[in-house]
Amino acid sequence: MQLLDGRNLSKKIEVEITQEVKKLKESCGCTPGLAVVLVGQDPASATYVSMKKKACDRVGFYSITHDMPATISQEAIERTIISMNENDSIDGILIQLPLPEQIDTTKLLELVDPAKDVDGFHPYNVGRLVTNLDGFVPCTPLGVMKLLEEYKIDVKGKNCVVVGASNIVGKPMAALLLNADATVEVCHIFTDDLKKHTQNADVILVGVGVINLITEDMVKEDAVIIDIGVSRTPEGKLVGDVDFEAVSKKSSYITPSPGGVGPMTIAMLLSNTLKAAKMNAKKKNS
Ligand code: GUN
């Protein structure tokens, strides 16, 4: 069994991005800028946003967080997004999800300029991903693909089972695997017999936030296991969706959680923001 070390790869990617930021600053005086919208007091969201901001600081990006109360109106968030769309020093816009119930999330995501949509959640970018055209790809599944690439795990023709069908993880993960010529099955909360699907998988990619959902009996010998889930145990320990202790003994490659996919998500946010900044710099110079 070999560990897929997302922490290490994300550090390597950050070094590359830092060098590119320096070059960009020298060539056009541009500093990549990321604006984050954080609504309410969800502790997990606050932690993620703080980690994203720290990562921006490490690579030399400009970043700003719009910290809004849970009672904020739809219109107030919309005004903020419109002003960020028009602000030349902002290359990327990220709306941390989930948002409070009274907020129409779809409407907000559609309001983000697709050229600044570093989360890849705008339907324009979702369409480009599904049709295998260049665009912004959601950070978590993109990070998984980078990790597979780094360890030379080719999914072409392989039986890949994605567990979870969210717009943020499962659906874009399935699209990326399909674009890489894998055979893809997507399982979800209504799937009848999950084990029936996972036990034949060459690669299992699971991100639903259920502790120990994937157990050793559900996994075939030498499968590749990608654990995208993060949950906190009652004792306060962070764990994934996979029974790591038992499943790791059976797998060929496995991500730890934490330390696998999580750091890659942040690295891909930086990479998408740099991509947006380069695109915007080109536009300004033309
Ligand atoms: N909430 C959980 N994951 C994500 C993510 O990747 N991006 C945003 N914006 N919100 C999230």
Kindly summarize this structure in a few lines:
The chain has 286 residues and is an alpha/beta fold. The protein contains ten helices and eleven strands.
Question: Can you walk me through this structure?
Answer:
This protein is α/β, with parallel strands linked by helices and about 290 residues long. The protein has 2 domains: about 30-110, Leucine Dehydrogenase, chain A, domain 1 (Rossmann fold, 3-Layer(aba) Sandwich), CATH 3.40.50; about 140-260, NAD(P)-binding Rossmann-like Domain (Rossmann fold), CATH 3.40.50.720. It is about 45% helix and about 15% strand. It has 10 helices and 11 strands. The chain has helices at about 5-30, 45-60, 75-85, 105-110, 125-130, 140-150, 170-180, 195-200, 245-250, 260-285, and strands at about 1-5, 35-40, 60-70, 90-95, 160-165, 185, 205, 225, 230, 240, 255. Helix 7 links the parallel strand 5 and strand 6. The model has no long low-confidence stretch (mean pLDDT about 95). Bound molecules: guanine. The site of guanine has 9 residues, from strand 4 and helix 6.
Report the major sheet: 6 strands, parallel
Strand order of the largest sheet: 1-11-8-7-5-6
| Attached small molecules | guanine
The mean pLDDT is 97
Number of strands: 11
Give the structural class.
alpha/beta
Taking pLDDT < 50 over at least 5 consecutive residues as the criterion, the unreliable ranges are none
Q: Write down the CATH class of the largest domain.
A: Alpha Beta
Oligomer: single chain
- CATH homologous superfamily name of the largest domain? NAD(P)-binding Rossmann-like Domain
